[in-house]
Design goal:
Length: 320
């Protein structure tokens, strides 16, 4: 369990994150999503004790990252955006070095290093110099380094950046596998990646949390009404009158009209979780208006993400 409370980080004149709070519960995969510059790395660096906050606290399984850094850091494994790999070492040497630095007891080091290499599937390259490994393999060594010391929580800062499609698929599969046993927090600027991997998403925009929801909740919250798009062989006034007479219909907006075909396309919003398609169909038929098509419109996750992370409008900036 991690509790991030009112984090603010100011670099000189620049406020990178402001009053950020969220909770991470055990046993799930969390996504920290946001465009470049949103404050993801700053937040993760503070959560892992690599950077001190200007204000706010982080509790990791109850330990304060600033006041009890040794206990707090023992609970987490971290892969920073720029992993601190020693490229003139082999993975086996490097991981042994990290295990020692993390205070893994001597009799456990060999076994833990081997397990970390097994989980991340790097045994086949364990005696090559890290400098000669592909980006995908280097990233696995970075993840192996994070799982050493048996932490409960793994924090990965944009682990798939710069990977080719094959490596990307493999690293995502590895993240999913880690998520079966551990709590995982992964950051990304790619919505589809977070949607694919995570149970829960926290969206950062310009240093603020703009969403903190289960993936399914996020979609539901952003689709508070049911929206239908329909094309009817009727004029706007006639079709509009039929729709407005139906209970549960909130708004009717004309999208387009074709005089040649004698059709009109309308967008209709109705109360949430109602399906009025049958009722609308028969009401139109009674007036001999043929319903040519009806579809339910859902706001895509991509649209949700863009609307949540849109830059502040000009008018807001003026008042700042
Ligand atoms: P993200 O990881 O989401 O891309 P960062 O946390 O790296 O975002 O950065 C958030 C903001 O803080 C950006 O505007 C970035 O330019 C700024 N920033 C990050 N690190 C520093 C620093 N050391 N000095 C000054 N500004 C920084
Ligand atoms: Mg970053």
């Amino acid at each position: 369990m991690i509790e991030v409370q009112n984090l603010t980080k100011v670099y000189g004149q620049k406020t990178a994150v402001e009053n950020v709070s969220f909770k991470i519960r055990n046993g799930r995969i969390y996504g920290l999503l946001g465009p470049n510059g949103a404050g993801k790395s700053t937040t993760m660096n503070i959560m892992t004790g690599c950077l001190s906050p200007t204000e706010g606290t982080v509790l990791i399984n109850g330990y304060d990252i600033c006041d009890q850094p040794i206990e707090a850091k023992r609970q987490i494994g971290y892969l920073p955006e720029q992993p601190p790999l020693f490229i003139d070492m082999t993975p086996a040497e490097y991981l042994t070095f990290v295990a020692e630095a993390k205070g893994v007891s001597d009799d456990l080091i060999d076994r833990q290093v081997k397990e970390a290499m097994q989980v991340t599937d790097i045994l086949s390259v364990k005696d090559r110099l890290i400098r000669n490994l592909s980006k995908g393999y280097r990233q696995r060594v970075g993840i192996a380094q994070a799982v050493l010391g048996s932490p409960d929580i793994i924090i990965l800062d944009e682990p798939t950046v710069g990977l080719d499609p094959q490596q990307l698929t493999e690293i995502r599969a590895l993240v999913r596998k880690l998520g079966e046993k551990l709590t995982v927090i992964i950051s990304s600027h790619i919505l589809s990646e977070i949607a694919e991997l995570c149970d829960h998403v926290i969206i950062l925009s310009e240093g603020h949390v703009v969403a903190d929801d289960d993936m399914a909740e996020l979609e539901a919250r952003m689709n508070p009404e049911t929206t239908l798009r329909m094309t009817v062989k009727a004029d706007e006034a006639g079709a509009g009158a039929v729709l407005k007479s139906i209970e549960g219909v909130n708004t009717v907006t004309k999208l387009s009209e074709s005089e040649a075909d004698g059709t009109v396309t309308l967008q209709v919003t109705t109360a949430p979780d109602t399906d009025l398609r049958d009722e609308i169909f028969f009401a139109m038929a009674e007036r001999r208006y043929a319903v040519l098509s009806t579809e339910t419109v859902e706001q895509s996750l991509e649209e949700i993400f863009l609307s949540l992370t849109a830059k502040k409008s000009k008018s807001e900036e003026v008042h700042d």
